[in-house]
Amino acid sequence: MGDFCSEENRRHSTLLVPFSYYKCLIPDYFAAVPIHWHGEFEINHIISGCAEFICGDGRFVSAEGDIIIIPPNMFHAIYPHENSKQIYDTLVFSPEMLGASENDRSAVSCVRPMVSGEFGINPRITREHIYYDEIKTAVENIFSCAKGNTPQLDMLMKSEMLRLFWLLEVSGDIFRVSENTVSMGEIIRPAIEYMNENFYEDISVGQLAEVVHLSKSYFMRCFKKAAGIGAIEYLAQLRVKKVCALLYETDKTAAEAASECGFRNLSNFNRRFKEIMDCTPREYRKTTRERGDFQAKTQHGII
After folding, report:
1. For the packed helices 231-249 and 216-227, what is the interaxial angle rounded to 10 degrees?
2. Angstrom distance (rounded) from CA 9 to CA 180
3. Are 160 and 145 in contact (CB under 8 A)?
4. Which of these, 81, 98, 160, 287, could form a disulfide with 141 (CB 3.0-4.6 Å)?
5. What is the separation of C-alpha 86 from the centre of its chain, rounded to a whole number of angstroms?
């Protein structure tokens, strides 16, 4: 889900191992996965519970058994739904797993258009899907290979991925995107990038509206629709996540980390931190260091 917002800095794949697997639990491992994007594909398999998903301009509440597929560079976010806890597997993988750099006709006509955004993907596969059983089997095999994590299983994983996307193709869940289609996410993307680069400075809604060349009121409506939360709330969450990274990775005091990340009032920082993370900065540092690297990274919103 790298960096808390904007385009992720975290690399989920390498040339040698072109994927990363994560076992996730929301909100226990992380309070939310706010809007972000990355250059890899992502598959989420909902084991139990539910959560609110934003995928491009679509919004839905997931259900047990759902399979959610995110193409490269699609805006996506996950927020808790009511009092439910969602347990799910996530795999983020390079387009190279599907042979994106090859020059055969399947790569040229089918894979690369998904990477470029020329083709879209229906992200949510439910139990009512005509090929649900076949898709679920392919996804379960993909995750089994990822957990096994050997070069030999990588071969099987690739074959199951190709079968999965073939099933999506024949069922009509991969489709050509209209050239005139502009999503709300694309409209606000420059504002999110601006916040990610300048979160330590004072930022107003007016400044953000100017970045995307919209009126203040229209920008606020666009942002809420695309991100699920308002721009100022998003900025507060971004700053808190940056503070979390400093608390885990450095010995800076909470006050020092807060000031470095754009909070000008310590009492306001402490209140916002508790609201967003459901703990104090001191408690966060203690528990994440005790839990270790994986939970700390998920708390930062890295995945």
Report:
1. 60
2. 29
3. yes
4. 160
5. 15
